[in-house]
Every structure is written in C-alpha cells, then in structure tokens.
Amino acid sequence: MACCSSETCASSSNNGSPRFRRVLWIVLAINAGMFIAEIVAGLVAGSAALQADALDFFADAANYAISLAVFGSSLRWRAGAAWVKGASMGIFGLWVLATVVWHLANGSVPHAATMGIIGTLALVMNVACLFLLTAFREGDANMRSVWICSRNDVVANVAVLLAALGVFGTGTGWPDFVVASLMAGLAIHGAATILRDASREWREAGRVHGVHMLR
After folding, report:
1. Helix (H), strand (E) at residue 48
2. Dihedral angle over CA of 32, 37, 40, 45, nearest 10
3. For the whole model, what pTM was predicted?
4. Could you tell me if 48 and 108 are in contact, meaning their C-beta atoms sit under 8 angstroms apart?
5. CB atoms within 10 A of CB 175
6. pLDDT tens digits for range 94-124
7. Helices 6-15, 174-214: crossing angle, 10 deg rounding
8. What does the pLDDT look like over 175-212, one tens digit per residue?
9. DSSP string spanning 177-206?
10. CB-based contacts of 205: which residues, under 8 Å, 6+ apart?
11. Domain boundaries in the chain?
12. Please, what is the end-to-end C-alpha distance for the chain in angstroms?
C-alpha cells in the first residue's frame, strides 16, 4: 500500500476489471467493422471526411488492441500505452490535413447521400461505444484515453453528417474539406491531452518505483 497513492491503486484495480476487458473487446469489434465499411464508402463517395473517419475507426481499433495488450499491467506500462495512443492520434490528424490538401488540389465533390447514410451508421455505433465506456472515463491515462477517443468520434460523426448536408446544399466539396480539417484539429488536440496525462503518470510511476526500490 505504501508503494502507490490511493488514486493510483484504485486506477490499477479498475483497469484490471473483467468488465473493462469485455467492453474493450466489444468496442474493438465495432471499430474494426466500421473501419472496413467506412473506408470503402469513403473511397466510393470521394469524401475526405468519410475517409478520415474511417482511419479514425482503424486507429481506435488499434488503440483498443493496445489497451487489451497491457490489460492489468503496471501503471507505467499503461502510461506508455497511452503515450503510443496519443502519438498515433497526432499522426492521424496530420494525415487528414494532407488528405484535405490533395482533395482541394483535385477539386473533388463527394457523394452527399453516401456520406449521410454511412455517417449516420457510424454515429449510432460510436454512441453505443461511448455509452459502454463512460463508466471508465475517470480511470488512469490509459482508460481516459479510450474514453476520449470514443467521445471525439461522436463529435466527428455529427460533423460528417453536417458536411453531407453542406455538400448536398452547395454542390461543392468545401463542407467536406472544412469538416475533415476540423476533425484533424480535434485529433491533434486529443493527442496533446493524452500525451500530457501519460507523461505525468509515467513520471509518477517512476517516482513510486524509486521509493519502492529504496525500501
């Protein structure tokens, strides 16, 4: 008990719960399935926002797999996993910005109906994931990063639907490009939050380990 604070011990207990593990497997399956569905739809519709959201599903599925890999591990391992998640989210944001530039250069106009249908399906799936993960949003950096990813996804799905309406109303690709850029900004902001929390917990775990070694 002297080797960690009450907050750290509680986080370790929550992170190792069978319920959290079951939820992670469920949201992993949902995100992997939606990545396949949305990347195909995004390519067919020519939508930068849909493709960005599809890659977000892929990143989330990979992140949930990382969480399962460090399931029940020490705080330092979990903080390291959260750091990897934050870094991957930041890279994703930069990739989306590059995609927007490419579509702008080519004058792409996405198919609004496909954007609306797939965007609605993605929203339903992400709301379900957020509902499942809400009970774990007050855990350690690893658990919080999982919830932050899911929360960001819901916001992104609403934005995709707004982009679909904008494309339908204007007949141009600008709403799609604007939403994709906003999604990139959201990803980069979320990455900064996760990296800050993970770095703090990594240092905290190092201090706890040092005290333990002295004893």
Report:
1. helix 48-69
2. -130
3. 0.67
4. yes
5. 23
6. 888 888 888 888 887 888 999 999 999 999 9
7. 120
8. 999 988 888 887 788 788 878 887 887 777 666 555 44
9. HHHHHHHHHHHHHHHHHHHHHHHHHHHHHH
10. 8, 74, 75, 76, 79
11. 6-214
12. 13
